[in-house]
Amino acid sequence: MTEVRTERAISVVVNGVPREATVPVRWLLSDALRHEFGLTGTHVGCEHGVCGSCTVLVDGQPTRSCLVLAVQVDGREVTTVEGLSRSDHQGGQVLHPIQEAFRECHALQCGFCTPGFLTTIAAGLDARDPSVEITDEEVEELVGGNLCRCTGYANIKKACRHAAATMRDEAAR
Amino acid sequence: MKPAPFGYADPTSVDEALDVLTSEGEGAKVLAGGQSLLPLLSMRLAAPSTLVDINRVPGLDQISAGPDGVRVGALVRHAQLLASSEAAGVQPLLGRATANVAHPAIRNRGTTVGSIAHADPSGEMTAVLALTDGSVTVATPEGRETIGWGDFFLGPLETSVHGPAVVLDAFFPALPERSGTAFAEIARRKGDYAVCGAGVVVTLDADRRVSSARAAYLSVGLVPEVHDLTDAVVGQPVDTADWTAAGELARGLVDPDGDLHASADYRRLLVATLTARTLADAGAEAARRTA
């Protein structure tokens, strides 16, 4: 007989690091990331799936962390905005091209929505063939599920194209 | 807000899930993709005593497309169905409608069958199940039964299934020959709930004349509605068919409510416009398939 619990032990790989925790089953993944693992880069806006601020990657797929229970990621891999940077193979870290592009293109103002945009766009760009030029339609699909209420989308879309161009150049090298 | 306290179980078989649902009683609720259920919990619009998470039940994540139609398992994510060229080949409405379901991050987690079991009249897949004359397979402690869409949807967020039950799959019959489909919706933001949406199927006879034109609407009634618009265009050559007349016929057949987002009259206007537009596209596709 399957047991009904109000608390559960979970083990999850967060940004490449295996983590274990005992969490109340009513906790959302966003709660566990922020309160248990101390990863406050994941921002919680609407907490019902509309704004996209809390988007993280679960097994590489963009997922609203407010629409998944923490117990449901037991045994999975989660990547938050803190995990988007990569090793530079010299002991340091380099930002993901979309993070660089956000800085370059002034794609944020208050920064609240930024982590959700970065995780969503990074996964989208990583999944596509970098040698093919990105279309406006693709860019709009990438950013369409996230709300930004201060800069507007012009510079965010510019950053997507900028990052896609960087990734094309890197792939050509 | 946060969900009210609840108990959680993640069984690894359908029988175990039914056992837990039975022992936990009325307050127990099945959790699949959770993209509609968890917001309801967080907004405290629902407070189940127990969530029975079926995500660890093996074998429910399959799409099987055959000549008769497409069977979609309870754990097939929207993104998986959207990417299935086999499913789109048998019933093109599946891909067309799924592309309108929410945003990519939601489609990665949300399930097609979950949307149907949720029975939201603004859901795309409820409309497609109705338009294709589809059905669902439901497992209960007494056994398994197939329920046609018309007997399944009772009202907004209400189905005919009560007591311990798991919807195992949904079956969408194949597109008939000499037919075409189209799907379109109007939303405040692409991917948000549609103010109005329409899916249509047009079928031609061997002389490329319209023999059938049917439409299903979302966000228009309390349950998915299918309207037969054939009378407005029957026998007309597909290239010159009066799709606008079919749209006007539809406008008179629907009885939408007004709300914050759109008045009832505006919804009727959208029904007429979307109907004419989608029928023209579906007619053109049917013509291409009637070589």
Automatic annotation (TrEMBL), chain A:
<feature type="domain" description="2Fe-2S ferredoxin-type">
    <location>
        <begin position="8"/>
        <end position="84"/>
    </location>
</feature>
<dbReference type="InterPro" id="IPR036884">
    <property type="entry name" value="2Fe-2S-bd_dom_sf"/>
</dbReference>
<dbReference type="InterPro" id="IPR002888">
    <property type="entry name" value="2Fe-2S-bd"/>
</dbReference>
<comment type="pathway">
    <text>Alkaloid degradation; nicotine degradation.</text>
</comment>
<dbReference type="InterPro" id="IPR012675">
    <property type="entry name" value="Beta-grasp_dom_sf"/>
</dbReference>
<keyword id="KW-0479">Metal-binding</keyword>
<dbReference type="GO" id="GO:0046872">
    <property type="term" value="F:metal ion binding"/>
</dbReference>
<dbReference type="Pfam" id="PF00111">
    <property type="entry name" value="Fer2"/>
</dbReference>
<dbReference type="InterPro" id="IPR036010">
    <property type="entry name" value="2Fe-2S_ferredoxin-like_sf"/>
</dbReference>
<keyword id="KW-0001">2Fe-2S</keyword>
<dbReference type="GO" id="GO:0051537">
    <property type="term" value="F:2 iron, 2 sulfur cluster binding"/>
</dbReference>
<keyword id="KW-0408">Iron</keyword>
<dbReference type="InterPro" id="IPR001041">
    <property type="entry name" value="2Fe-2S_ferredoxin-type"/>
</dbReference>
<keyword id="KW-0560">Oxidoreductase</keyword>
<keyword id="KW-0411">Iron-sulfur</keyword>
<dbReference type="InterPro" id="IPR051452">
    <property type="entry name" value="Diverse_Oxidoreductases"/>
</dbReference>
<dbReference type="Pfam" id="PF01799">
    <property type="entry name" value="Fer2_2"/>
</dbReference>
<dbReference type="GO" id="GO:0016491">
    <property type="term" value="F:oxidoreductase activity"/>
</dbReference>
<dbReference type="InterPro" id="IPR006058">
    <property type="entry name" value="2Fe2S_fd_BS"/>
</dbReference>
<protein>
    <submittedName>
        <fullName>(2Fe-2S)-binding protein</fullName>
    </submittedName>
</protein>
Automatic annotation (TrEMBL), chain B:
<dbReference type="InterPro" id="IPR051312">
    <property type="entry name" value="Diverse_Substr_Oxidored"/>
</dbReference>
<feature type="domain" description="FAD-binding PCMH-type">
    <location>
        <begin position="1"/>
        <end position="177"/>
    </location>
</feature>
<dbReference type="InterPro" id="IPR005107">
    <property type="entry name" value="CO_DH_flav_C"/>
</dbReference>
<keyword id="KW-0274">FAD</keyword>
<dbReference type="Pfam" id="PF00941">
    <property type="entry name" value="FAD_binding_5"/>
</dbReference>
<protein>
    <submittedName>
        <fullName>Molybdopterin dehydrogenase</fullName>
    </submittedName>
</protein>
<dbReference type="Pfam" id="PF03450">
    <property type="entry name" value="CO_deh_flav_C"/>
</dbReference>
<dbReference type="InterPro" id="IPR036683">
    <property type="entry name" value="CO_DH_flav_C_dom_sf"/>
</dbReference>
<dbReference type="InterPro" id="IPR016166">
    <property type="entry name" value="FAD-bd_PCMH"/>
</dbReference>
<dbReference type="InterPro" id="IPR002346">
    <property type="entry name" value="Mopterin_DH_FAD-bd"/>
</dbReference>
<dbReference type="GO" id="GO:0016491">
    <property type="term" value="F:oxidoreductase activity"/>
</dbReference>
<keyword id="KW-0560">Oxidoreductase</keyword>
<dbReference type="InterPro" id="IPR036318">
    <property type="entry name" value="FAD-bd_PCMH-like_sf"/>
</dbReference>
<dbReference type="InterPro" id="IPR016167">
    <property type="entry name" value="FAD-bd_PCMH_sub1"/>
</dbReference>
<dbReference type="GO" id="GO:0071949">
    <property type="term" value="F:FAD binding"/>
</dbReference>
<keyword id="KW-0285">Flavoprotein</keyword>
<dbReference type="InterPro" id="IPR016169">
    <property type="entry name" value="FAD-bd_PCMH_sub2"/>
</dbReference>
